Sequence to fold (120 residues):
Amino acid sequence: MVSKDWWWGRSASVDLHDCDPKLVKSTAAIRRFVRQLTKELNMHRVGPTEIKRFGHGQLRGYSMMQFIETSTIIAHFDEKGNRAFLDIFSCKTYSAKKVAQFCKKYFKAKNYTLYIEERR
Fold:
């Protein structure tokens, strides 16, 4: 029997602010980001990267989902505010701080907020 406290994975949520507007509005840039992030994390993508544009009025932006062998990477992009909201969940260990810094650099964000949760 597995202990109730057995570590299952890490969830990192990264909120990026003041991103390059061209990057948050580009499906090609978002796809490239997924490829580079999974390479950085040494994680393997499973299936295609799904990207859809949603919203109404001024609240529009792309949403992205990528299955990885160890779980998922999900992102939502705010075109009006030039913000990105990313969630990386994996049962493979990784440095959430390095992920946040990578995301900040890629999207040319001025700053970020990182939330980390260890899942049990």
Remarks:
- DSSP finds three helices and six strands in the chain.
- The chain has a mean pLDDT of 95.
